[in-house]
């Protein structure tokens, strides 16, 4: 059995295994990455996943799905054509199909059976999205050794601890297809430790947004010239988006590129020249937004921009020239280019998979390795987590940028009615003092409050984030005793609606279509 690292990306997915001293990146049909695309075109409960599915984005866009990682942890569903056992797929179900394809290809490429993986997530991924990622792995029948923050994985890939001149403070600028993160990581050589000092980001900001700006520009120019609105038709829009994506890539190495979409109408082709200057003007505010996030993070930290020893660029979208320029101007440092941004995260995840599975000389069951959670990578809670109280305010229990794993308890909560024996505890994540302005994580019920007048019981709430940033909540009436509380440890699962049982997971796993 083999443990691998998987970078489950919005646009591309990569996988690697630690072989000898270096990770080996999985080969996907001659490519080092696989597109995170699922096409429901085969019928008989078969789907095409990966690079072979990309062509269907244009030819059958209503049955082909991509960028669904941006919706992880939400209630979004995707309707698929008739003929499949499951008629609506969640983002985690689609992600499970991508994971299955990645694992099957890894087994072919590496020549060994894969049973577990370290799967990476954006550093600023909210808790529901992390939980959804774990669920996707369950659907794919893959054991998750750990959900690893992408910046930590990138640091591991760059091998920063092995340098002659030790680097102590690293900034990781991670711009992928759908998400953006900036993280500051401290390297502690004597402890062989990576410790994330802080992270911030946007779950809805990435290369897809740069593509969309180009799509809107080209469509507007074309409509002004021909009177044809390409954005009004789904297939026209998808064809244009694929062409825009290709032009974006070309503009990283050229001053101009041609947008071509043949036969948008029987007698009409779309042909436009776009310059790099135009593209950079169209997307300047998106670049500025990432830099604003960087500034905001450093305002919260004890380290300053001048304390950063090196800057790592991660994620395929970080290869755009305007990104490199903006990052260099902000940090006053030329970003490192030692590892391909598309591969760095998967390679670092493979390093950690080797350590956690015990194949690199560290026994994960020993006291030393256990304290570092399998190899010296400590993540942080991206945003505060707490509960909604009766007046609608947000009561923080875990602060942002707390080192994971973290457990915190707050008491002093109470009932609002005489004789109240149950309380619904709603958990949120975010910065606002108003609960409903934050991300709703879920709720659970404390059902053994003692019979007492309103305001008398002293209710304690414990929130624990494990090393992967996944929540385990508990609550109890102090006068009854902690052992009589309610939470995951007692079989009460936190959920948006109804908790999914092991039988539910197994049923979905069995009903997922065969991956080609």
Distance between the termini: 23 Å
Point out poorly predicted stretches: 360-374, 488-493, 495-499
The biggest sheet amounts to: 6 strands, mixed
Query: Helix fraction?
Result: 25-40%
| C-alpha Rg (nearest Å) | 24 Å
Number of E-type strands: 27
Secondary-structure class: alpha+beta
Oligomer: single chain
Strand content: 25-35%
Mean pLDDT: 87
Number of helices: 11
What is the molecular shape? globular
Summarize the structure in words.
The chain is globular and about 80 Å long. The chain contains eleven helices and 27 strands. A hairpin with an 8-residue loop joins strand 25 (471-477) and strand 26 (486-487). The chain has 516 residues and is of the alpha+beta class. Helix 2 crosses helix 3 and helix 4 crosses helix 9 (344-356). Residues 360-374, 488-493 and 495-499 have low confidence and may be disordered.
Write the layout of secondary structure elements.
Elements: E1 2-7, E2 12-19, E3 22-25, E4 34-35, E5 37-43, E6 46-49, H1 56-59, E7 64-66, E8 78-79, E9 88-89, H2 91-110, E10 114-121, H3 127-139, E11 143-149, H4 150-158, E12 169-175, E13 180-188, E14 193-202, H5 207-226, H6 234-250, E15 256-265, E16 268-275, H7 276-300, E17 310-314, H8 321-331, H9 344-356, H10 367-371, E18 377-378, E19 385-388, E20 394-398, E21 406-413, E22 423-429, E23 439-446, E24 459-465, E25 471-477, E26 486-487, H11 502-511, E27 514-515
Parallel strand pairs: 1-10, 6-27, 10-11, 12-17, 14-18
Antiparallel strand pairs: 1-2, 2-3, 2-4, 5-6, 5-7, 8-9, 12-13, 13-14, 15-16, 19-20, 19-22, 21-24, 22-23, 24-25, 25-26
Helix pairs in contact: 2-3, 4-9, 5-6, 5-7, 7-8
